[in-house]
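Q: My hope is that you can spare some time for a protein that puzzles me. Underneath my words sits a plain record pairing an amino acid chain with its backbone structure tokens. Those tokens are not coordinates but codes from a learned vocabulary of shapes. Thank you; the sequence and its tokens follow:
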Amino acid sequence: MPAPIIEARGVSKSFFGNPVLRDVSIALAPGRIHALLGENGAGKSTLINLLSGALVPDSGTIEIDGKPHASLTPAEARRAGVAVVQQELSLTSQLSIAENIGLGAYPRRLGLIDYGTLAERARAVCDMVGLDEDLARPVGDLPLGRRQMVEIA
């Protein structure tokens, strides 16, 4: 098995004194499909939030590409290639595919959105996930499966 791209070792998390995760370890290898299964309240979402930087563990370590992160932020996780696709999509249906992909990190030129660079970046990530669509098309016009691909991109 290849070296893990992301790994949690002995992570624990409590909310208001209630332990949600206790000493959890997981290693995710690149190019593999992983399933995280458990009953409601088992801590699956909490673990995903820890791995993506949305939450900070009370104890334990998270490593991305072998680099430990004591308090991973969502921006650091995203830069390292960690992204979470939630069951509920977080797309804005009125915006284009390119605008949704770049949302929150629009390239700027002279203080305005640089739509040319935005389209180049969006095309690159769409190519990576195999999404061949008109980037100017509103996301709301896409079937669900294609919207999920935009979310992944």
About this structure: The mean pLDDT is 88.
